[in-house]
Amino acid sequence: MNSPSPTRKIIHVDMDAFFASVEQRDNPELRGKPVAVGGGHRGVVAAASYEARKFGVRSALPSVTARRRCPDLVFVKPRFDAYRDVSGQIRAIFADYTDLIEPLSLDEAYLDVTEDRLGLGSAKAIAEDIRRRIRAETQLTASAGVSCCKFVAKLASDQNKPDGLCVIRPHEAARYIASLPVGRFHGIGPKTAERLNALGIHTGADLQQLSLEELTGRFGSSGEWYHRICRGIDERPVRSERQAKSVSAERTFDSDLSDPAALHAELDRVAGLAWQRIERHSVAGRTVTLKVRYADFQLISRACSSPEPIADLRRFSAAGHHLLERLLPVPRGVRLLGLGLSGLCERDEALPLQLGLAI
């Protein structure tokens, strides 16, 4: 007779205001000041320090709005190479505790520490040691959530931010979730939260009152997910080989563009930058997506797919120009262009497509 599997021990580690904190660490003059990474005259905020967040400045906020909310806001240009270097340091720390690491971005990851590799005694002790080492080795702070599944661990990591730790034990999960607004749930965005609120569902406790049949009747397949997570049931494993779903680049302009020649020229630049990232990931893909943000901040996207993986810049760029041409003339100025590749596969999988070339 097989013995039951041990209860999983999952840690979600989330760096505190990561990009902004790196900037404040590397430039002492920024410490204690409200800082926004990105933005500038025309862009949007990529990250905000906690000093800026007190004024309602957050990521994805137009820089004009951010400046209005916080007149003393300091904008700094992003340094992604620096952020990637620090992220590599943090991943190296994680690897001392477990091989089961699932990065979600440069600044957060799930860790499965069911196996106590270093004999620290508990998942809480492991999380504490990881946070201690991050502070000592990077001079940055991280928050962590500890629980029996990914969903609850991610909720917990946000509970005591910044520089906090929260442990939710298995028997506490359902009660903890019941106390939270549904807008806090990972995977439930603002629009879905509004829809739930309109139905009188404001908290996890409200969700727990509804049967599986009621939830699936109202929300389809998502209803089954809501039924599980509001009870703290999440059987997704930590996947150490999590692959990117897409690779892209985008550019925000200092002034709105409407001239077709200028738009095509800028798209060439964006395509080149995106292709550098695609090559760095050693991937090819079948779907090219063009993203356009107009002067009034309306965002649209257009996509086209190829039956074969797109494995060179020429075809990638040509697909982007084809999509752009279908939008011309633009109805109003364009402030941002983006181009991405999805439907990814390893670059080696696309190599047979080259066999027909003359040599």
TrEMBL record:
Keywords, comma-separated and alphabetical: Cytoplasm, DNA damage, DNA repair, DNA replication, DNA-binding, DNA-directed DNA polymerase, Magnesium, Metal-binding, Mutator protein, Nucleotidyltransferase, Transferase
Protein name: DNA polymerase IV
SUPFAM superfamilies linked to this entry: DNA/RNA polymerases, Lesion bypass DNA polymerase (Y-family), little finger domain
UniProt gene name: dinB
Function: Poorly processive, error-prone DNA polymerase involved in untargeted mutagenesis. Copies undamaged DNA at stalled replication forks, which arise in vivo from mismatched or misaligned primer ends. These misaligned primers can be extended by PolIV. Exhibits no 3'-5' exonuclease (proofreading) activity. May be involved in translesional synthesis, in conjunction with the beta clamp from PolIII.
Catalysed reaction equations from the record: DNA(n) + a 2'-deoxyribonucleoside 5'-triphosphate = DNA(n+1) + diphosphate
Residues forming the catalytic site: 108
Cofactor binding: number and manner: Binds 2 magnesium ions per subunit.
Chain sites annotated for binding Mg(2+): 14, 107
Taxonomic lineage from the root: Bacteria, Pseudomonadati, Pseudomonadota, Alphaproteobacteria, Sphingomonadales
Subunit structure: Monomer.
Cofactor(s) required, per the database record: Mg(2+)
